[in-house]
Amino acid sequence: MKSKILIVDDESSICDVLSDILNDEGYEARAVSSGEEALEVFNSFRPDVILLDVWLGGIDGITTLQKIKEQDSLVGVIMMSGHGTIHTAVKATREGAYDFIEKPFAMDKVLIVINNYLEWRQTKQENQSLKETFTHRYRMIGKSSASRKLGELIDRAAPSNGRVLIEGENGTGKELIARNIHFASRRSTGPFIAVNCAAIPEELIESELFGHEKGAFTGAAQKRQGKFALASGGTLFLDEIADMSLATQAKVLRITEDQLVTPVGATSSFAVDVRIISASNKNLAELVQQGTFREDLYYRLNVIPVYVPPLRERSSDIPVLLQHFLKSFCADEGMPVKSFTQEAEEQLMLHHWPGNIRELKNLVERLVIMAPGDIIDVEDLPGEYRRVGEASGDIAGSHVIADSLRQAREAFERSFIEAKLDRCGGNVTKAAELMGIDRVHLHKKIKHYGLK
Ligand SMILES: Nc1ncnc2c1ncn2[C@@H]1O[C@H](COP(=O)(O)OP(=O)(O)OP(=O)(O)O)[C@@H](O)[C@H]1O
């Protein structure tokens, strides 16, 4: 679509010349001779750029500028001024004009200023839409106290340059957290480069991270930049770092010490400016104990530790996540927003979620496509998401067949504790936390019921 330009000048010769040239240059130009007329046609013509003379009969250029800006603060106004009015034109830039040109002007200069404005506006719009895409795509959803604490931690950690180590099960959102830290940091305009160390064969990881020289090894036909170099000025996200060999760990350790990278096969090194955020789904402290992860590297990377709890330990996040993904997938599919029945939602809150948020997201995508109606009920859930309900039926059933209230209460309590312990993988502290009781109290109950 052609960009529209409105020319406002009471000298008809200037209007004619400008209109002819701008139309020839591929713009849609229109000229008027007063501020009043400009305001009249502004809404119907909707110009992208206005070339506005400072000196006009009737309302002057500055007043016209102010009135136009009241209607549309984003339109690009370029003031035109004669020799005596240059001071006014400069003042106009403070009132929101994009730039000014002095009469008599060379047409080249006018075209350059118009072009500069249109490019500036396009970059601004692109940045805005990138920002919107980011906020939508990488928004972290969650209202549990664990999620709120994570949010606070990200806000505090982001502005610093401190290395961050994120630990948590698969699919808990470690990469999402890393991206949020990057985008809230001073490096946000720099690159965010992610490397999954587990996905790269051992023999290629060094070349992937540090780059290589041409002919450094069989198959290295071209010199190649590594991820450290690509991330310079930004953030390098090292995912699954536990999968790095001890040799690679030693090299990464050196870079964290001197920020110098030596590509494979190179004789010299170069400096990089990289903030490292690493992540692991294994307990790195344990791997240090076992001798498979370097202790010194562990401490270098773990300046700011972030632990992401599994979804089953923050089940109050489940309803909001379900809502969020339902809305987003239904919008992608161009269909009305579906909803879950209360029973279906309760079933999902009881699920163990071994794949965490990734699993939940995939399930919602599947249900949006496969569930026949707009309301998703328990029958629409795949079998494995209903099993917990059957188990809780057992819990309910066991107390119904008991005779006394005490027996019923004990039967229920026993099954309840057993289910919670099971959910927490036998971890008594976690189960006690989940049930909202003291750990010592839970130990007594376990002993009382002879649970393992
Ligand atoms: N709090 C959240 N709000 C919205 N979406 C989330 C949230 N946490 C995770 N996700 C989404 O869940 C999916 C898995 O997240 P992510 O890849 O960050 O997990 P991860 O812990 O890095 O996984 P892995 O250990 O397998 O690499 C992604 O699509 C991510 O956008």
From TrEMBL:
PANTHER family assigned: TRANSCRIPTIONAL REGULATOR (NTRC FAMILY) (PTHR32071:SF17), TRANSCRIPTIONAL REGULATORY PROTEIN (PTHR32071)
Domain Sigma-54 factor interaction: 140-369
GO molecular function: ATP binding; sequence-specific DNA binding
Keyword ATP-binding appears in the UniProt entry: yes
UniProt organism field: Desulfurispira natronophila
PROSITE patterns to which the protein is assigned, alphabetical: RESPONSE_REGULATORY, SIGMA54_INTERACT_2, SIGMA54_INTERACT_3, SIGMA54_INTERACT_4
Subcellular location: Cytoplasm
Top-rank taxon: Bacteria
Annotated ranges, domain Response regulatory: 4-118
SMART domains given in the database record: AAA, REC
CDD domains: AAA, REC_NtrX-like
GO terms under cellular component: cytoplasm
InterPro entries for this protein: AAA+_ATPase, AAA_lid_NorR, CheY-like_superfamily, Homeodomain-like_sf, HTH_Fis, P-loop_NTPase, Sig_transdc_resp-reg_receiver, Sigma_54_int
Keyword Cytoplasm: yes
Name recorded for this polypeptide: Two-component system nitrogen regulation response regulator NtrX
Positions of post-translational 4-aspartylphosphate modification: 53
SUPFAM superfamilies: CheY-like (SSF52172), Homeodomain-like (SSF46689), P-loop containing nucleoside triphosphate hydrolases (SSF52540)
Pfam families: AAA_lid_14, HTH_8, Response_reg, Sigma54_activat
Keywords: Activator, ATP-binding, Cytoplasm, DNA-binding, Nucleotide-binding, Phosphoprotein, Transcription, Transcription regulation, Two-component regulatory system
One GO term (biological process): phosphorelay signal transduction system
